[in-house]
Design a protein that fits this description.
Helix content is 28%, strand content 26%. It is an alpha+beta fold. The radius of gyration is 13 Å and the shape is globular. The chain has one domain. It starts with a strand and ends with a strand.
């Protein structure tokens, strides 16, 4: 298991997206940071994968994306990611902006 949770945060406006690695020091700190991103009105979506899935890009996205660039996949995230099911939540909070590959 990685000590980091990698996220791609999609923003409104001129800053299209940012890759963030959150250090998993504690569940409370991780939940706090995710809640901050979820509550930020400039954030449109938070792309991540299920923590138990290794190599999510290669196994879940690449078969659909084929020759598309990573930038294409990120900017067209709705084609490759879906809203996380309501039962997938961090702590007691469902984060409605979280998207996972399908």
């Amino acid at each position: 298991m990685s000590e980091f949770l990698s996220l791609i945060v999609i923003y409104k406006g001129s800053r299209p997206y940012e890759v963030i690695k959150l250090h998993a020091t504690s569940d409370a700190q991780l939940q706090f940071k995710l809640q901050q991103l979820n509550d930020d009105p400039q954030v449109v979506a938070i792309l991540t994968s299920h923590p138990d899935i290794q190599h999510a890009y290669e196994t879940l996205i690449y078969p659909k994306a084929k020759d598309k660039t990573v930038d294409y996949v990120i900017t067209h995230y709705a084609l490759f990611f879906k809203k996380a099911p309501h039962h997938m939540k961090y702590g007691n909070t469902h984060l409605h902006k979280i998207r996972i590959p399908y």
